[in-house]
Amino acid sequence: MIRGVLLDLAGVIYDGDHALPGAIDAVGRLHQEGLKLRFVTNTTRSTKQKLLTRLAKLGLDISTDELFTPGQAARDWLTAHESSPVLVVHPNLAQEFDGLPAREKRAVVVGDAGNAFDYTHLNRAFRALIDGAELIALAKNRTFKDEDGRLSLDAGAFVTALEYASGKTATVLGKPSPDFFAAALSSMDCPLEDAVMVGDDAEADVAGALRAGLAEALLVRTGKYREGDETRFEPPPTTTVADLAAAADWILAQR
Amino acid sequence: MIRGVLLDLAGVIYDGDHALPGAIDAVGRLHQEGLKLRFVTNTTRSTKQKLLTRLAKLGLDISTDELFTPGQAARDWLTAHESSPVLVVHPNLAQEFDGLPAREKRAVVVGDAGNAFDYTHLNRAFRALIDGAELIALAKNRTFKDEDGRLSLDAGAFVTALEYASGKTATVLGKPSPDFFAAALSSMDCPLEDAVMVGDDAEADVAGALRAGLAEALLVRTGKYREGDETRFEPPPTTTVADLAAAADWILAQR
């Protein structure tokens, strides 16, 4: 019996600066039917607060407790591990790390830095790693759908570059980290077996959720979806549907 | 019976802008004893011609036929495969590719681009790859010894980034490509079993040469060598010596 739904944001709820057709309405229908919802995103180009403001403008009013971001998870990780960050992140995300106390231990934190992925930043991060810093990946996504509608290099490529050169393995905090899915489900007291994930990334969202133990995961053919994605990663999606509206239909039909 | 010697350049012959102690003299001694020599470098921050000029200033006068560079190998590859390059290389190397005819087929060519490793260049290369271009790595070295004496990110990190995001596997043209070693040996009619390699990179120079079938490979404790390198990669070096002078002593003692 499905009781909880985890929803990706970019490519599922919105695309660029507009909500996807039927998406906001689908969220409303799921809510109305008594399902618990959490939003789990690997977007790392803005702070959690800015993302909430952006969602409100699109007509999606959610509270800070309903949204799970890798930036927040990284801040929590740094506090728990008493470490100071060496940031390779987008300028819009940097303030998520303001006010952390200075520590001797260091951790390189890599997000989708956009144009801040330059040699100077990456080499500084590499040198911190060989001097003993941990490597923290906000996400390891290969690509994202860029503003021009085409795929662009995402953080995962640069995380892999630093792993290759330093010999270290990154701790991934966002999807597909089982801890990330588990934190979102735990916040709504929903066990893995009663949960479904809906996403446009067949690897991080769908295969990731199923590997983390969720009962079901739906792939939508919006956002970064490309033909053939449903068979590209293991495990494959429970089913593949046109968009979030169709995903809501499928979920509600199961009840 | 050793008849041919392959020598790495940076970290073996020179370091920064000066020849290493005893290195030029060691090359002279190997020559005098009738050994055939070729210089095989993964340096991709300058054209072959500029590198020859630089070596001459350090007191090493060699001909264009004695020097093997990945840039030259890439130019040959592009000609053989009737492809035009999408360059991610250092500005000083770019002119190595001048004058190639325009072709429909494209190949992304990645060298040690230094500050030209920025998001714009890397994302342009990524998009060419998903549009069908081949991926050519001049080298896949993890690190190099930078001008300040510390290790810095080398081309391999960025090649790995592009492989991860595009799902393609790079064709590596420089060391440890067996074809690269073979081309240098073939140019002096020296079979693999009569050849020795001397380098400071335990992975690309030493393990690479042994995997390519060379009889022996010596690791020198100069350049990018770090303690423990002799046991870090398989196969391990035939022996590890202080520098090129000691390598020449070892080689001459075998005869």
Give the tags.
Rossmann fold; alpha/beta; 33% helix; homodimer; six-stranded parallel β-sheet; 2 domains
Strand content of chain A: 15-25%
In total, the number of strands of chain A is 14
Order of helices and strands of chain A: EEEHEHEHEEHEEEHEHEHEEH
Q: For this structure, what is the CATH class of the largest domain in chain A?
A: Alpha Beta
C-alpha-based Rg of chain A, rounded: 18 Å
Describe what this molecule looks like in 3D:
Two copies of one chain form a homodimer. In chain A, 33% of the residues lie in helices and 20% in strands. With 255 residues, chain A is of the alpha/beta class. Chain A folds into two domains: 4-38 and 177-253, HAD superfamily/HAD-like (Rossmann fold, 3-Layer(aba) Sandwich); 70-172, Rossmann fold, CATH 3.40.50.1000. Chain A is globular, with a radius of gyration of 18 Å. The termini of chain A are close together. The interface between A and B is medium-sized, with 29 and 29 residues.
